[in-house]
Amino acid sequence: MGNIGSISISVDHPISSCWYRTTEHANYLCKLPENLVALGTACERLREFRNDVKRKVDIAEREQMQRLDQVQGWLSRVENLETQVSQLIEDGTEEIEKKCLGGCCPRRCSTGYKLGKRVARKLKEVDTLMSQVPLDLVAESEATVGMNSRLGMVWSSLDEEQVGIIGLYGLGGVGKTTLLTQINNAFTKTTHDFDFVIWATVSKNVNLENIQDDIWKEIGFCHDKWKNKSRNEKATSIWRVLSEKRFVLLLDDVWERLD
User: Fold this and answer.
1) Mean pLDDT for each consecutive 10-residue tract of the chain (259 residues)?
2) What are the contacts of 236-242 at 24+ separation with CB within 8 A?
3) Domain stop point among 137, 159, 176
4) What is the pLDDT of residue 101?
5) Do 236 and 124 lie in a common domain?
6) Phi and psi torsions of 27, nearest 5°
7) 8, 61, 85, 128: most buried by Cβ count inside 10 Å?
8) 88 and 181 in a common domain
9) What is the biggest distance separating any 2 CA atoms in the chain, rounded to whole angstroms?
10) Number of domains within the chain
């Protein structure tokens, strides 16, 4: 007798995939009216937030402030989305009016499916923009904008090998100490190649020993032996340590040349 063989072919996966796609298509078609209403409602809420943000921006700009780039970007994305949603709702409403049999069977199923899919995607885009509403800070002063620009210039100069001294100068109250503070804070928030970042306040009535003490606190520690040293001995100790290190010395409130 001849051998009898059998071949088993599983069709579960193709059937499941086909069923999933069919169900997905049906959902886009059947939920088109419901999703259109939801999209219109969500877009109206987004429009209300946009108006709130624009109102804040208008008030800030009347006070000579400058809107943030991220705020302008958000407003532009909302405006573009509103145009797309308006056209999509118009197309979707027209498609629903062409339904037959009073159920979920548009005369042009392919068109209805594509519209339903686009509506579902736009709903997600609206939700995303709603989660990104910039209500806390929409603008900043021109001084802050300029400060950030100067901070960037100073920071980039620190990477240049030929730069040894950077001077920040100007009349009182223009923001020299603020900028120096931002530079100091930037070192604490980013990685860098310097062994020490030292802050010392000079002031109009210069006291060199106080400056030496501020420097030594950052590179060593103040003890009785240090306190008993003369000014020249302190200078020698500081030089001995820093001559072998990469460091940044931030001197605030400088009124005249220091030796």
Assistant:
1) 44 42 62 87 93 85 74 91 90 74 51 82 92 77 58 72 70 70 79 83 84 84 76 88 85 78
2) 238/212, 242/196
3) 137
4) 39
5) no
6) -65, -45
7) 85
8) no
9) 116
10) 2
- Is the pTM value of this prediction over 0.70? no
Sign, CA dihedral 141-143-144-145, equals positive
Confidence (pLDDT) at 75: 92
**Are residues 188 and 85 part of one domain?**
no
Q: Report pLDDT for 158.
A: 72
Q: Are residues 130 and 150 in the same domain?
A: no
Q: Which long-range CB contacts under 8 A does 76-83 form with residues at least 24 apart?
A: 77/129, 78/46, 78/47, 78/50, 78/129, 79/50, 81/43, 81/46, 81/122, 81/125, 81/126, 81/129, 82/43, 82/46, 82/47
Q: Which of 137, 156, 178 is the last residue of a domain?
A: 137
Report helix, strand or coil for 140: strand
Q: Is 104 a domain residue?
A: yes
What domain range is 197 assigned to?
A: 141-252
Structural domain includes residue 1: no
